[in-house]
C-alpha cells in the first residue's frame, strides 16, 4: 500500500509542480500531510512504526542522496572562494544555534542539560532542500546560494559528533570513544575523496571511456560505491556523500554536468518518499507536547537560528535582506530526522520526549519553510520590486542617451 500511495502522490506532485513553482504550494508539505492522513494518525492505510527498518534506511538513503547532489554543486575552488561566509555560519552559527536551542529545551520543556544539549545538536543542522526556490533562483545573489548550500552540506556531519557524545552521556556511558568518532568522520571524508578521484582518473585513461548514453550513470555508480564502502567500513556516510560530490565537481566537471539533472531527480524522489514515511509516523499523541512544546518549536525556528546568524554575521558585509534570508532559512530536514530516530532507538530515558519535540519542530519547519521559499526568493527578483513604469522609463532613457552620443 505504501508503494501505491507514493506512486499516486508522485503523479499528483508532477501535475501540480508548475503551480507549486509559482505559488506557496509545496510538494514537500503535500507528502508530509498525505503521510499523516494515510498513517495511523488518521486513516491507518499506511501503518509504520519508528522501529521499522524501512524508516531508518529510507531516511539515511535520502540524506545521502541529497548531500551527494548538494556537494556536486560546488568544486573545491568554488568552496575555497566561498568559504568566508559559510565559515562564519559553521564556526559561530552552528554552536550558537545549538546552545540557544538547548537553553529553550531546558527551561521550557524541563529537560536535563544533557538531554537539552542533545535536542540542540539534533536541531542545529539545516537543510535547504525545503528552500529550493531560494537556492535555485538565479536572481538570488550567488554568495547567498553558496552559503546555504555549503553550510547545509557540512553542518550535518559536524553536528553528528555532538549528537553521539550527548547521547552517550545521556545513556550513562562514561567511555565516549572520541577516538572512534574521529576515525569515523575522517574515514568518511577519505572515502568521499579517494573513491571518486580514482574512478574519474580511471575513466580518463586511454583504456576506458563512457558512452553518451551511460555517462549520467558514472556519478551514480560512484555514489553507490561510496555508500557501499562507507557502510562496510563504518565511515560517516554523510560526510562521505558531501565529500564525494565535491570531489566529482572538482575533478570531473563533465561527470557533474551529465549527472546534474538526473541526480537532482533521484534526490527528489528519496526526499519525497522519506517525507511520506515520516508523515505516516506522526500521530496526534506524538504531537501532544503541550503549549510549552509548541512554543519551543516556534522559538527554535524564529529565535534560535536568527539570533545565532545575526551574531555570526556582524560586519560580514551581507545586506539586511541577505542576512534575513539566511536567518530564516534554517529548515530542519533529513539530518534531524535521522538523528531523532537514532535517539529513539537508543533507549535512553528521555528518548520518547526528545523524539516528540524533534518531530514537532521538523513538522513546523517543513510547513513554514517550504511554504515561504518562493515568497522570500521574490525579494531578490529586481523586476518584481520595480514599478511597472520603470521598464518603459528605462528604455526611453536608454534611447535618449544613444541619440545624444556623438557620432564616431
TrEMBL record:
Transmembrane segments: 44-68, 89-110, 116-136, 157-173, 185-202, 214-230, 236-253, 265-287, 293-314, 326-348, 354-376
UniProt-listed InterPro entries: Cation/H_exchanger_TM, Na+/solute_symporter_sf
UniProt-annotated location(s): Cell membrane
Leader sequence segment: none
Stretches assigned to the Cation/H+ exchanger transmembrane domain: 12-372
Record's keyword annotation contains Hydrolase: no
Any Pfam family hit: Na_H_Exchanger
Presence of keyword Cell membrane: yes
Lipid bilayer topology: Multi-pass membrane protein
Alphabetized UniProt keyword annotations: Antiport, Cell membrane, Ion transport, Membrane, Transmembrane, Transmembrane helix, Transport
Main location: membrane
Superkingdom: Bacteria
Designated name of the protein: Cation:proton antiporter
Lineage, uppermost ranks: Bacteria, Bacillati, Actinomycetota, Actinomycetes, Streptosporangiales
